[in-house]
Specification:
Blueprint: H1 3-63, E1 78-83, E2 89-92, E3 106-109, E4 112-118, E5 128-133, H2 135-156, H3 158-206, H4 211-237, E6 245-249, H5 250-265, E7 271-276, E8 280-284, H6 285-301, E9 308-314, E10 317-322, H7 329-334, H8 352-362, E11 366-372, E12 376-382
Parallel strand pairs: 7-9
Antiparallel strand pairs: 1-2, 1-5, 3-4, 4-5, 6-8, 9-10, 10-12, 11-12
């Protein structure tokens, strides 16, 4: 290599490294902005959820003519205070009482995030609930440290980092964004059907047309919306490892779910046949309800109008069989992944079976899928590992 070639190569490397560093800096900046917004939103939702729990406890206490007794959260990084209508605190374990600003709803101040909720009930002395947490600020600081370390390492190994970002960071992020974009679109589509039916039914009911039929449609749509909300809430806020195990009869739970979904299936004129044996299990009742409800909901979504769904609990195995569109072999390999869904336009948005799969793994329940296109699908769960001896 002669001098000119060497100078040209060095110039090329200098331009390449400079361009790569500039690009890397831009990528880190936008990545930080997106993660910052995500952490802010996550912190806000966490405080809102915690304040709603406190509000519920307060209303329940005063509804039963009892005085509300404040309790600290298990997570010591979440604290709160209660104020009366004159903004005098009735209870507080806040670190920074001087940072409370009643003119704002969610804000960051003094290394803390705050959320202020106002109660409207006049018969309750508590008027404001103020939530405080340092978790959001800690997460943001950790994000800054993490990005700084990565940026320094990237400066030293720019060639490797560029390849790493292209293969392991940019592609997964792009796929995640695409999945979330599809999830939002599918969520809107999923909610559109019951909301449209609900609005149409209410309008026809007001005009006195087929009141009995319209009431069935209203009940069906309301239950569909409730089921969709519960799935989203469970997937977003519930830790699959947190459980409250108890003994209960699985057959009673399944019978209640079948009765619940009979009101939903009425809009497609689907008949649910049930053959249930008695079985007592030991597990989290809410998670068991999620297993049953999501399989029934999935069967209704992918079944054709005027068809039948067979539900059974025999020999410790719970089965849901539909005679709908079925699932191809290729889709069967992906169907239990989050945000993955079938091609049917009436299908859900890909969290129901993910919830089922995660719960089954947490309790070592064996789940099986037998499906053929245009013939139907059968989901079965073996509850042997959780039966009461």
């Amino acid at each position: 290599m002669n001098k000119n070639e060497r100078n040209a190569l060095l110039s090329f490397l200098a331009i390449y490294i400079s361009s790569a560093m500039l690009l890397l800096a831009v990528l880190f900046y936008f990545y930080y902005q997106e993660q910052y917004k995500s952490l802010q939103k996550s912190c806000s939702m966490e405080l809102i959820n915690a304040s709603m729990n406190i509000k519920t406890d307060i209303l329940n206490a005063y509804m039963h003519d009892k005085k509300y007794v404040p309790k600290a959260f298990n997570d010591k990084r979440i604290r709160y205070a209660l104020y009366d209508k004159d903004k005098k605190f009735l209870f507080s374990n806040l670190d920074r009482k001087d940072a409370v600003d009643f003119t704002k709803r969610f804000y960051e101040k003094a290394e803390q995030h705050f959320y202020v909720q106002k109660l409207q009930e006049d018969n309750i002395p508590i008027r404001y609930i103020v939530m405080e947490t340092c978790r959001g600020v800690e997460n943001i600081n950790n994000l800054k440290i993490y990005l700084a370390i990565i940026f320094i390492l990237s400066s030293v190994f720019i060639g490797f980092v560029a390849f790493f970002l292209a293969k392991l960071l940019l592609k997964p992020v792009r796929e995640k964004v695409t999945d979330m974009d599809n999830f939002i679109k599918d969520s809107a589509h999923e909610l559109n059907t019951p909301v449209s039916v609900l609005m149409t039914s209410v309008s026809m009911l007001k005009n006195g047309k087929n009141p009995e039929k319209m009431m069935k449609y209203i009940l069906s749509s309301s239950k569909q919306i409730s089921q969709i909300y519960n799935d989203i809430h469970f997937s977003a806020f519930n830790d699959i490892n947190e459980s409250m195990e108890e003994k209960f009869h699985l057959n009673s739970l399944i019978e209640d779910s079948v009765e619940f979904f009979n009101d939903i299936s009425v809009t497609k004129n689907i008949n649910i046949e049930a053959k249930i044996e008695e079985l007592e299990v030991y597990m989290d009742r809410t998670k068991a309800q999620k297993l049953v409800n999501n399989l029934l909901s999935n069967a209704i979504k992918y079944s054709k109008n005027n068809s039948t769904i067979k539900v059974s609990l025999e020999n410790k195995i719970f089965k849901v069989e539909d005679f709908g569109i079925g699932i191809s072999e290729k889709e069967q390999k992906e169907i239990f992944k989050r945000f993955k869904r079938g091609k049917n336009i009436e299908g859900g948005f890909g969290i129901g079976l993910d919830i089922v799969n995660r719960i089954c793994k947490s309790y070592n329940l064996k789940i099986n899928l037998d499906s053929k296109e245009n013939q139907g699908s059968t989901f079965s769960i073996d509850f042997t590992s959780v039966i009461c001896q």
